[in-house]
Queue: 2 jobs
Job 1
Amino acid sequence: MDLTYRPRRLRRSPAIRAMVRETSLSAADFIYPLFVHEGAEVEPIGAMPGASRWTLETLRGEVQRAWDLGVRCVVLFPKVADELKTEDGKECFNEDGLIPRAIRLLKKDLPEMTVMTDVALDPYSCDGHDGIVSATGVVLNDETIEQLCKQALVQAEAGADLIGPSDMMDGRVGAIRDALDEQGFEHVGIISYTAKYSSAYYGPFREALDSAPRDLGVKPIPKDKSTYQMDPANSREAITEAQLDEQEGADILMVKPGLAYLDIIYRLRHESELPIAAYNVSGEYAMVKAAAQRGWIDERAVVLETLLSFKRAGADLILTYHACDAANWLAQD
Ligand code: PBG
């Protein structure tokens, strides 16, 4: 054949392929989510094989392991005892609560590791919502933000580097920015869950924290989070959320979930100059793990391909439960 263009010329050898490779993956791109609980034992999480609820004692070792593999940021999620859950979620700003203690411990022993937090009421709410639920079953915006600001301050005081509001209340980024600045935490960053969709992919996470919405029969409880998390059908709305977060002072914008929302990552990459993070959520992790356990897919290849796809779509950072495995595999390549 008389072909002028033969794209295969640049695929001929590993060396040539490496020369023209457009994106790459590195351990420094990863943010490793970790669950902590008060218990004395490390508890495996059924729907998330390989992930556990760590104790405060064992958390340190897992974070050290991540550091040694090149991971430079962790995000902490608490499994809160039922007795501490209330309608207003006030345990979220207890300075002796699980998360502030975990942050202090990590900052003492591994000060260089970046510690990110999650700001929302759901782990602390007896109703399992990210905000306060009114007597008529409405998730209250402004009242919730007051709690979130207190939560963010307690986390910053404990030493958090990046505050991650995941609640999707309107105006929370600006309110948290103001609260942090007023108390002298202008150096603490905000990684906003900018485009967080009302997704079924969070199922295993809610099992890990026992944090799904629940109706205790006291008042009507919305059965899902669709009055505050975004409709999976919407794309332009993500741009609106990104513009608001930028105006309110977010440092990093996040898209969540990741894999079913690569188009949103791509759009935000082109609409904003801020770093973009993708959250490779619990349901995405569980699907890969389940298929790999059955021998139906090659876990290593699928995980690295998936994580690379977030970078290709335009993400700079990836929150992923695969962080340590992936960092390990990358180091062997
Ligand atoms: C809570 C929160 C959720 C996740 C992170 N922060 C769950 C939810 O919104 O219901 C999900 C993470 C995952 O599924 O891996 N605000």
Note: The chain has eleven helices and twelve strands.
Job 2
Amino acid sequence: MFSLNTPIELLTRVGKTTASRLKNLGIATVFDLLYNFPFRYEDYSKIVNIRDLKPGEAVTIKGKIVLIENRRAHRRRMTITEALIEDDTGSIKVIWFNQPFLTKNLKPGDDIFISGTPEIERLTLQFVSPAYERSTQFDSLNTAKIVPIYSLTANLTQKQIRFLLSQALRSVNLVEDWMPPEIREKNNLMPLPQALSQIHFPNNQEQMALARRRLKFDELFLIQVSSQILRQFLAQAKAPQIQFKEKEIKSFVSSLPFTLTNDQKKASWQILLDLEKSSPANRLIEGDVGSGKTMVALIALLNTALNNYQGVLMAPTEILAVQHFKSISSFLKPFGFKIALLTGNEKNIFGQDKMKKQDVLKLIKTGEINIIIGTHALIQDEVDYQNLGLVIVDEQHRFGVEQRKKLKDKNRNGLTPHFISMTATPIPRSLALVLYGDLDLSLIKEMPKGRKRIITKLIEEANRQQAYQFIRQEINQGRQVFVICPLIDESDKLGVKSVTAEFKKLAEHVFPDFRIGLLHGKLKSAEKEKVMNDFKNNEINILVSTSVVEVGIDVPNASIMMIEGADRFGLAQLHQFRGRVGRGEYQSYCFLFSENFSQKTRERLSALVKSSDGFALAEYDLKFRGPGEVFGTRQSGLPELNIASFNDLELINLAKAEAHNFFEHYSLADFPLLKNKIEQSKMINHLE
Ligand code: ADP
Ligand code: MG
């Protein structure tokens, strides 16, 4: 038996490469494996006689291999393995493609489980590429039960993960149940070790449902407890009172090259009122992509600086931090404030490029720098502030009590700064209120005037060349193009376009005469930065990228957003991609490609064609993706839910009520396991 902290390398059949692939999925220990939940299941628990097989029904048969052999299908250049399986009631043909090694592992006479959905081919039933497993083995993992399906990257297989989980689960009883027993009993929650075991290999549908309920509740309860803790902290914290500098702000606003939208004015006004209070603001600004949230942040930062307090703007990525730094520096130039950029790799004070990091830190500490823009580096230990008044976090609002305490401790004036977060994730208001009941919310729904509606189209494979032709014309007229691909890795099982392969294809075959850039998360920051800058400066015509461009990047000259594998993204996310174009004066387009436009996909994606309202799309997606489907998606700005989803309204409410109850009746200090769990649950974990 392993301890929970055992590194995965020590498990059977994990070599160096497998370990590093698992680490890419965030799995480094036995504990991580246990918490890597399947995103769906195949129910192969029904074992039937061959005679009773019906087409289209997912089942398992238990039989003997009568015959198994490979043959080559020359025309299609593949190997086909054919087997005949029989039981007491009959026999059935089974085929697999391109797995010639099967005949080495499986021999006539072997007892075997075959799990899958039989199909009719030439009037007889057969299994095509079913799961199989020797039935004489101890416990089956891939057949004859409800089988978990995990989301994986290339070169890891479901079988591998299941096998690793079977090892990890031997230690499941070491997981301590941190839920206060009163709450567990009152709400009929399955004990944690049992839930962890049933979530991977459920005995039946009921146990699966109970396990999911327990684990979802855990997640939601932790969020609610954290927000209670935050509320208590804010209730007794003192913030600087920052006056509304009406004259300066008004003259600044009227000097802008555009008029603020009403929603921008309203949000700015709400923030300015917040800042005047002596308790720290805690507000979320929700505004669709391109709605102009940065301007609202800028007004708040300006007002703060005019009061001689320091303001911080934190972005989720370096690229965005640099973009904010440049645009804010130029807007605020007339005021002569000192504005610094501080990220893991970059340090810069406006106008003084070659500043040493230590010197920047010193100037922040002595208060000579008024506005500091950066990434999470801004809350690292080495940064101290003289007189911090306001912290704004872009595209990220899981900023818990620990981070705020830290900022308070770094602040030499001893005050807790006001806190504003901004997100483009269109969480419907009702949902936001349930999730963050105690947070103030400003919505920016209105788009700046003069924005042209982005023309969105689903492009059939047959029309791909035509789309390329159109793109060519646009580029010849000076425009630029984004191409988004879902994954980085080449050998993706689902055949999704890999970003590198797509880059090569476009650069070598489709648009050899254009300049094409490549951007993905694995590039070094400096490389990313260079590519983005080249794109911004129109030195690159086409930028091929993974979803790293999702948040915030502003390139007004780009007029086409082309998305490969569009079926793999949620509507809200697609909408955010789309928001990368249409930022300038040009008519812009969003082209959605997919290798399989199923009817369902088509229906879902056509919502995007029809609507340009991010809130409506998010609601639609919440409805459309029934519970049980995709519960692992990462949503920017939202807490990363591993298993719960935002449509678990009932459970959200229950968790909220229980968190309230808990603080009314108990003290966290008496529940060390819970306390520990809260401390572990990192509140800003997707900043990196
Ligand atoms: P987001 O809300 O997605 O962060 P940005 O703040 O990046 O949007 O704004 C998108 C673009 O719109 C920027 O180029 C910005 O200068 C411009 N913008 C902001 N407010 C207005 C406005 N009221 N009218 C016209 N353009 C605006
Ligand atoms: Mg933004």
Note: Residues 1-39+161-175 form a domain with the DNA polymerase; domain 1 fold (CATH 1.10.150).
